[in-house]
Design a protein that fits this description.
Radius of gyration: 20 Å
Order of helices and strands: EHEEHEEEEEHHEHEHEHEHEEHHEHE
CATH superfamily of the largest domain: Medium-chain alcohol dehydrogenases, catalytic domain
CATH architecture of the largest domain: Alpha-Beta Complex
Structural class: alpha/beta
Largest sheet: 7 strands, mixed
Number of domains: 2
Strand content: 15-25%
CATH class of the largest domain: Alpha Beta
Helix content: 25-40%
């Protein structure tokens, strides 16, 4: 049996350094289980490491991809696994998911409930868990919330769940005009990031800003946020670092999902998803655009299209 996987053996532009390699499938190692992948999304968190942005903690070669959905097809004889062969699972915190077969630690694998469709389950990790944990760390009840990159998947979940948790208001900053209607439909007030007066007004009243952009936008918001407010930085989609402007009175907090994973026990890890699945079942998520694994270059090009409304997904 063969396994096809998207490898990167050096850092650089994903379109240049990723390559689809097909090799014989190795025997399953002791203690692990094997998952045949169904589909995996393309997220910024999948592509940024390929560029070398995290070279201080990630070395090559690597298989790309951090989440996805598959079917459990094999267990090692000594594997302690509560899940059944044929069950849908997410093989997480293991080798890259952009391949036909993933060998995973069953303690970190997450089973998918029967009432969760594939198009939700395949993206049930990175963005949902990040949004849910941030709202746990920085409660939003009765507060005015501002989210940047408001058309993104994580910001969309932050918007929906913040309002459900009693936020007084949510304002969503967008770059592409095609995002405006979708932001309104989630219950947020949309603000064009080129409208400096509106940005200033939004920042003036913000209690908590969840920022995925960084750079000039973060600096502009921080310059106008009130005393006692917090900007939670959880991404740098601009590719630009930032610092607290002179005379600013807001606080900066940084959120990295990996920091929360380093100390969580397997039992608590599984418990997080027990709480997440019902929320995801009722959440509004962007539609998906499906690409075969062999068509991965077109999938990445689609990911980079300005104003795209669908989540690109690799199908195995």
């Amino acid at each position: 049996m063969k396994n096809s996987a998207l490898w990167y053996r050096q850092f650089g532009d994903p379109l240049d350094v990723l390559g689809l390699e097909t090799t014989p499938l190795k025997p399953l190692e002791s203690g692990l289980v094997r998952v045949e992948m169904i589909a995996a999304p393309i997220n910024p968190s999948d592509l940024i490491p390929v560029t070398g942005a995290y070279h201080h903690r990630i070395s090559t070669p690597q298989i790309a991809g951090y989440e996805g959905l598959g079917t459990l097809v094999e267990k090692a004889a000594d594997a302690t696994c509560p899940f059944s062969v044929g069950q849908r699972v997410m093989p997480l915190r293991t080798t890259g998911t952009w391949q036909n077969f993933v060998d995973a630690d069953p303690a970190l694998m997450v089973a998918v409930p029967d009432n969760i469709p594939d198009d939700i389950a395949l993206r049930g990790y990175i963005n949902p868990l990040a949004a849910w944990l941030m709202l746990d760390l920085w409660p939003v009840k009765d507060k005015n919330i501002l989210v940047t990159a408001a058309g993104s998947s994580c910001a969309g979940l932050l918007t929906q769940w913040a309002l459900a948790q009693g936020a007084a208001s949510v304002t969503g900053i967008y770059r592409s005009a095609v995002r405006k209607t979708g932001i309104e439909e989630l219950g947020a007030h949309p603000v064009d990031m080129t409208n400096e007066a509106a940005l200033t007004d939004a920042a003036n009243s913000a209690d908590i800003v969840f920022d995925a952009v960084g750079g000039d936008l973060a600096r502009q918001l921080l310059a106008h946020m009130p005393d006692g407010s917090v900007l939670v930085s959880y991404g740098l989609l601009s590719g630009q670092l930032f610092a607290l402007p002179e005379n600013a009175v807001a606080r900066i907090k940084r959120f990295h999902l990996r920091d929360r994973l380093e100390t969580v026990s397997p039992a608590k890890w599984q418990g997080w998803f027990d709480q997440l699945w019902p929320l995801l079942h009722d959440a509004s998520l962007p539609p998906i655009a499906v690409f075969d694994l062999a068509d991965w270059k077109n999938a990445i090009n689609f990911f980079h299209q300005p104003g795209r409304l669908e989540k690109p997904v690799l199908q195995f």
